[in-house]
Amino acid sequence: MADLTLYHASPSRSSVVLWMLEELGQAYDVKLLKLSEGDNLKPDYLAINPMGKVPALDHKGTVITEAAAICTYLADEFPQARLNVPVGSSRRGVYLKWLFFGPGCFEPAVIDRAAPRKEEARRAMLGYGTFDTTMDTVAAAIAKGPWLMGEQFTAADVIIGSNVRWGTIFKLIPERPEFTAYSARIVARPAAQRAEARDKGWAA
């Protein structure tokens, strides 16, 4: 039995952590939940994550939820994979910004655009400001490439990259060359390919 166990529904937001685990190169177990059958709302899983959401990760008895938090934790816990920017580095602040930008700005902006409110919210009410500003900010960062932190691929790329790829597939973000090229670099990563193959196998 591995020290790492991912509670996963295929496909779902927990696919982000599945990819992260493949990038990590550590042994891990997967416990599959079927959202269609309400597995995530059953008492045994609610004891793990009271929110009834996936992903959840158990590492030697420590349970972490929220994809960005899990990816941050894993990158720091296994620094040999070089998926983090260590504490003490002047680059760490920017790295952390992107880890929080995914769930805090990018995803909400896309969801709000896909499912608009009856009345448009005031910009000051939205944590991300505007959709266009959010898209411009990410596009400018990845245009410098190849990754958010330059030559180093990090957990921040797992978080932002998952959002960009998802938004591209479902045509929820603008068709910009920066996003297309970044998505292509992600798809080419062997770990991303392995994670996608596992997800497809489980979904089938």
Number of E strands: 4
> What is the helix/strand order?
EHEHEEHHHHHH
Reported for the largest beta sheet, the result is: 4 strands, mixed
The CATH topology annotation of the largest domain reads as Glutathione S-transferase Yfyf (Class Pi), Chain A, domain 2
The rounded distance between the terminal residues' Cα atoms is: 25 Å
Summing up helix and strand content along with how strands pair, one would put the structural category as alpha+beta
Domain unit count: 2
Radius of gyration: 17 Å
Question: What's the CATH C level of the largest domain?
Answer: Mainly Alpha
Report the portion of residues in β strands.
5-15%
Widest sheet: strand ordering: 2-1-3-4
- What oligomeric state do the depicted chains represent? single chain
> Mean pLDDT, rounded to whole units?
95
CATH architecture of the largest domain: Up-down Bundle
Q: Helical content, roughly? A: 40-55%
User: What does the overall shape look like?
Assistant: globular
Q: Low-confidence parts lasting 5 or more residues at pLDDT below 50?
A: none
Q: Number of helical segments?
A: 8
